[in-house]
Design goal:
Blueprint (H helix, E strand, L loop, with lengths): L5 H6 L3 E4 L15 H5 L4 E6 L5 E6 L7 E6 L8 E3 L5 E9 L2 E12 L2 E12 L6 E2 L9 H9 L3 E4 L7 E5 L9 E5 L5 E5 L6 E5 L5 E10 L2 E9 L6 E8 L7 E5 L5 E6 L8 E6 L4 E7 L6 E6 L5 E7 L3 E5 L2 H13 L4 E6 L8 E6 L3 E7 L5 E8 L2 E9 L3 E7 L11 E8 L5 E8 L2 H4 L4 E5 L20 H4 L4 E5 L9 H5 L8 H15 L3 E11 L1 H11 L7 E5 L5 H9 L2 H6 L20 E6 L7 H13 L4 E6 L11 H17 L7
Parallel strand pairs: 1-30, 33-34, 33-35, 35-36, 36-37, 37-38
Antiparallel strand pairs: 2-3, 3-4, 4-5, 6-7, 7-8, 8-9, 10-11, 11-12, 12-13, 14-15, 15-16, 16-17, 18-19, 19-20, 20-21, 22-23, 23-24, 25-26, 27-28, 28-29, 29-30, 31-32, 32-34
Amino acid sequence: MRSYNLGLLVGAAFCLATAPLAVQAQAPAAPPVAKDFARYAQIDNVSISPDGQHIAGLVSQDGENKVIAIWETANPDKAPTILGSAKMQLMGMNFVKNDRLAVLAQQTWTYGATKTHLQKLYITDLKGSDWKPALPENRGKTEDEQFAQAVSNPSILSRMPNDPRHILVLNTNFTGSGDVYKVDLYDGSADRVTRGSDHFGGLQADHKGELRARQKVDFDAGKVYIGQQIRDPKTGEWVEHWRSYAKDRNLMTVVGFSDDPNIIYVNVRQGDADKTGIYEYDIAQKKITEPAFEIKLFDAGGPILDDDGKLLGFDYEAETARNYWVDPTLAGVAKNLPSALGVKTVSLAWTDPGGAPTAKFSYPDGAGAEIADWSKDKKYVLIRKSGPNLPPEYYLLTDGTKLTLLGKSRPQLAAAKLGESRLVEYKARDGLMIPAFLHTPPKDVYGEGPYPAIVLPHGGPSARDHLDWDVSGWTKYFTARGYVVIQPQFRGSEGWGSKLARAGDAQWGKTMQDDNDDAAKYLIDQKLAAPDRIALFGYSYGGYAAYAAAIRPNGLYQCSVAGAGVAEIKRFQGETFNDRFLREYQRPTIDGMDPMPNAKNVSIPIFIYHGDRDQTVEVEESRRFVGALKAAGKTYKYLEIKDMGHQYNFMTPAMLETQLTEIENYLKTDCGPGGL
């Protein structure tokens, strides 16, 4: 790796240039229509080859189909090479070698009564002339084997950055599940490195492609645990180093391998700490030796390492996912980005839900800029600018000084039409501080409020929202239409510390739902919401919360909207019963008010919708709940969306557009007396 002129990078301002690398911009619509939010991005998923010679991204001219565009980094104005597929939709890609891309493609698939989506991982050269599956495929001898082959999709365990020909691939087919292969990307051959095992999983490889860590689920006096094994760097033997017990819900995990073979990075909560940290673990001593990265207010994630295992930085959770850079080159880039791209910040006095002293921290106002990728020598650095009011924009920084706009993902959306967004917090009725993201309409169009309001709890429930661009359109589509939207990070949400996460245990429809209701009351108290014009909309677990909002007699909502909601808690609990680890780790957290037997208590209009290819929350749950509503004589609307799956990746632009317009129409016309 060559030396770098740090003085030039840190001391000079970036010079912004432009190049027509992306597709042509369109005139912004006012107000933006649903299709503007739902369409595929004009440019997305941008990455740079390790040698810096090529840039690749997913692009869409028509908003309905995606292709891969590959540019020469030194000539970004030169027409790109285009790679596409007539049979499958391209969903993602990344460089695995300088001249090879790993590409994820998918299509709908029906097998008997099973309606799902297939995803397949391919390797291609940069001209699209040499496509291969990530693992060689053999036609199954029986129908069961053919089915398993169809639904399995191998994953890349290591791209082996210092090996010019090979990557490590993990087989997921049940006939060879857990087998690891060293795959030659040029002749397609695959040599098995190790066989899979019913006793071990969680295989991890270092930057050299050497298998270094694995896990075993076992029992100790009847208590289930994950035993973390690490391969001894001297003897090559597998040795157990620690056990994480399911009931403790504090999994100590390997999150990176340093350039010192004796030192690995682990993520864990230490002692009575509320937040996770990243620590150096000494293999020889079998213990944590020192903290690598901790942050008082938020959970830490893992280290960011280069191709040789050298530490570059760390990632952590804040108002959104953030990076802290220790590499001087990347730290210098990050320092200069705000001034170069016009990023402004706001300061907030934060009362930590976990009990840490109130402290101030700053975050980007409307949009921030982050390092997205870089060439090995850091001559080229890809920058992503985005935020709740700004769909992602991509820039190329060359030699630390020249900043070139590569493309805007949704130039048809004007930030001024989308309103404002900020991080807030409110006190729940029992005193617990609840983080939330508040999205308000543009005041020059809709005034100061109060507005019609939407409480929008996230899915999971052990997940969280981020203050960044919302690819679903569920926040900004509605603020652009005069609604105020709040996303409560209710108890049970992760990423804000253990106290908030654990406070949701077995509280479905109880204190978890109180937090959503208290978000509605917060909007009223702040004079942002009209008390008689509030709805609750959610998807997945948020759909469950919409059921609970319709059932609980709180009088706060005029209606609720449930997308793919969990309607049967006992059924969901049952899905965790067969996994002995999840039986102790997750199942005790899933309990509370069960919507199905309480359908007769629904007291407000409810709109329910579901995709018929949903493999996460089966569509039959919504069908049964609708049947119970019909039998009880309740007011409801039901929509089944053909071919839609559960996750965003399994939704076409047309499906997203349908969701937005159907929800909007329902809120206008059927939500309470006269609509919202």
